[in-house]
Amino acid sequence: GSHMMADLLPRVDIAPQITEALLKEMSDKDWKTRNEGLTKLQAIISEARLIKPSIGDLAPALAHRLVDSNAKIAQTTLAICEQLATAMGAGCRNHVRNLFPGFLHALGDNKSFVRAAALNCINSFGEKGGYKEFFESEMIADALKGGSPALKTELWAWLADKLPGLPPKSVSKEDIHSMVPHLYAHICDRNADVRKNANEAVLGIMIHLGFDAMNRALDKQKPASKKDILAALEKARPNLP
């Protein structure tokens, strides 16, 4: 109900305020200048309060700042993205393709405050715009393939939490399928936290794919790891809705 009410409220088009000069400031080689640009952007969004999803070239510019070498800049950018989701409402889903890879990058940061900010950001976008767009273009599979142990640990925990509650046809089956090889690799990972959270994510993936499809995917696994993976599948199976 509150989402629908928010959709009826008048929204401000901030695109004219996303000027070439502001974007240039946000990408300046001096981090203090980049920070000033981001502070101006925060003020624009705060003042408008409710905004339209049309934000010019801002999303690609923010994507670069999400992976900024300066942790303070990356953290500020995450805060801005969370602010955007709140100000934009359901329209924030239009920008997931640009921004989600940066959120995932931050989810693997070695600083816990950056990881926490990334998680808040992902959940804000999901709550306002739905989760469908996260599960497109194999963005999650790509992150699991090349990510740090911290990223794998955080991402499997998030998937274990979110997937069981998502209606089965609301997310792409193909994209969930693309995660299965990584799930199986991580069930046998050397890192205990990665192993634990991958095991906990099995049920959520099984709810969307079914036991049989996941069992068939075992054929591609090495005999040494098959036993552990099958045990994880059998453990999750009785809990299927």
Explain this structure to me?
The protein is mainly α. The protein has 14 helices and no strands. The relative contact order is 0.08.
Highlighted features:
241 residues
Q: Could you give the count of β-strands?
A: 0
Secondary-structure element pattern, one letter each: HHHHHHHHHHHHHH
- The global form is elongated
Q: Percent helix among the residues?
A: 55-70%
User: Regions with pLDDT < 50 over 5+ consecutive residues?
Assistant: none
How far is the N terminus from the C terminus?
A: 27 Å
Question: What class, by secondary structure content?
Answer: mainly alpha
Mean pLDDT: 94
Assembly state:
single chain
What's the number of helices?
Answer: 14
Using only C-alpha atoms, the radius of gyration works out to: 20 Å
Give the percentage of residues in beta strands: under 5%
Q: Tell me the major beta sheet.
A: none
